[in-house]
Write a structure and sequence with these properties.
Layout: E1 7-12, E2 15-20, E3 49-52, E4 57-61, E5 76-80, E6 89-92, E7 96-100, E8 105-114, E9 120-129, E10 138-141, E11 144-148, E12 163-167, E13 170-173, H1 179-189, E14 208-211, E15 214-217, H2 231-241, H3 248-256, E16 310-316, E17 325-326, E18 337-340, E19 355-357, E20 366-367, E21 371-373
Parallel strand pairs: 12-17, 16-20
Antiparallel strand pairs: 1-2, 3-4, 4-7, 5-6, 5-8, 8-9, 10-13, 11-12, 13-21, 14-15, 16-18, 18-19
Length: 375
């Protein structure tokens, strides 16, 4: 084949120089202009590391990814944490992401990055998730904004003023914590008082008893809500499990469900009346607690948010502010801890109703459930 010689004439002080090469591409106003030949395209580099926040919530960090042509260029990221063809996080400039696995097993995690002229690159890694058994009974509550409180004050703890609250996503126990679960905690923890030497619970005919050196549910009450538990006991259980008690705002938001305008009276009961199928109160309970989850859930899939037993919350009791709030945690200190929801021996307490008692208080009408931040 006859070779064609392309010559570039370059004027130098020494005379003429001949180069056997192609002319360079013309200089463009925009260095990212797609006029560049495909052969000159250099894709970005995709790379990530991950770390566990606990055994099933992972943090993924793609900061090692970069644009090969211009390190200052802002690349975009998207993630498929299950490698199932669906992007769990679509294009974002955030180089870190969090994901909570619901079941144990090894997953292939896919990262795709996009750089100059929309060139892309991918990275794949295996993650081995070990999910605690309790996560199988947690419900995902999405982030949202709602109006918290009630404009009328008829009880002992003021639900006014109505105010806007913005909450991040979290996981919440589908059911109230049971006697079986709490007995397991006591046997593992090994004592009846918390880390600060506060007493955590008292035996109850509907709750837990001690059989020799072992704590166990009363016969027939394994799946009933734990009762006789102080706020300290509820908080210590949550700490032991790697969760926490819900804030008062999280509790009310979760109880209202996906449609707070219709089901703000009794959790899950859209009509606002004839709610016996959703909550155990004095009118239908037979003056006793019932197994968790026997009635209908609310629209989030949570059972017994109204009735059966009241539920301890994280907050100290205090008056609501009028201003809008983001992830409120209540007062920094106080004398009473909040509990919410109504019980088998109470009237049909509506969702916004507030109650509070000193944290060493216990009764057969107060239990709890737990939450975990989504990230």
């Amino acid at each position: 084949m006859k070779r064609t010689l392309l010559a570039i004439i370059v004027v130098t002080l020494a005379g003429f120089t001949f180069c056997d090469k192609k002319p360079s591409a013309p200089e463009l106003e925009n260095p990212y202009d797609p006029q560049y030949a495909a052969g000159d395209d250099i894709p970005p580099t995709a790379a990530f590391v991950f770390s566990t926040q606990d055994s099933f919530m992972y943090k993924f960090d793609a900061s090692a990814s970069h644009e090969s042509e211009d390190s200052s260029f802002q690349i975009l990221y998207r993630w498929d944490f299950e490698n199932d063809g669906r992007w769990d996080v679509d294009w974002t400039s955030q180089e870190t992401a969090y994901y909570t696995y619901r079941t144990s097993g090894t997953r292939s995690v896919l990262l795709e990055v996009k750089g100059i002229r929309s060139l892309t690159a991918r990275a794949l890694a295996a993650v081995k998730a070990k999910v605690p058994a309790y996560m199988n009974t947690m419900v995902y509550i999405p982030a949202g904004v709602f109006l918290m409180g009630y404009e009328y004050f008829v009880g002992s703890h003021d639900p006014r003023p109505v105010h806007q609250v913005n909450l991040d996503a979290f996981w919440m126990s589908k059911y109230e914590i049971t006697n079986q679960q709490f007995a397991g905690f006591l046997n593992s923890y090994g004592r009846e008082y918390d880390d600060n030497s506060y007493y955590m619970f008292y035996p109850d005919p509907w709750g837990i008893r001690k059989n020799g050196s072992t704590w166990e549910p009363q016969p027939g009450y394994a799946d009933y809500p734990v009762v006789g538990v102080t706020w300290y006991g509820a908080a210590q259980y949550a700490k032991w499990q790697g969760t926490r008690l819900p804030t008062e705002a999280e509790w009310e938001y979760a109880a209202r469900g996906t449609g707070d305008k219709k089901s703000w009276l009794i959790s899950g009961c859209v009509s606002g009346y004839d709610c016996d199928g959703y909550a155990w109160f004095a009118s239908n309970s037979g003056a006793r607690t019932h197994k968790v989850g026997e009635l209908h859930p609310n629209s989030f899939g949570l059972y017994d948010m109204s009735g059966n037993v009241f539920e301890w919350c994280q907050d100290w009791y205090g008056l609501y502010p009028a201003a809008s709030l983001i992830n409120p945690k209540g007062p920094a200190k106080g004398t009473e801890r909040v509990y919410r929801g109504g019980a088998f021996n109470s009237t049909a307490d509506i969702i916004p109703d507030r109650f509070a008692m000193f944290p060493l208080y216990y009764t057969n009408a107060i239990g709890f459930r737990v939450v975990k931040p989504a990230q």
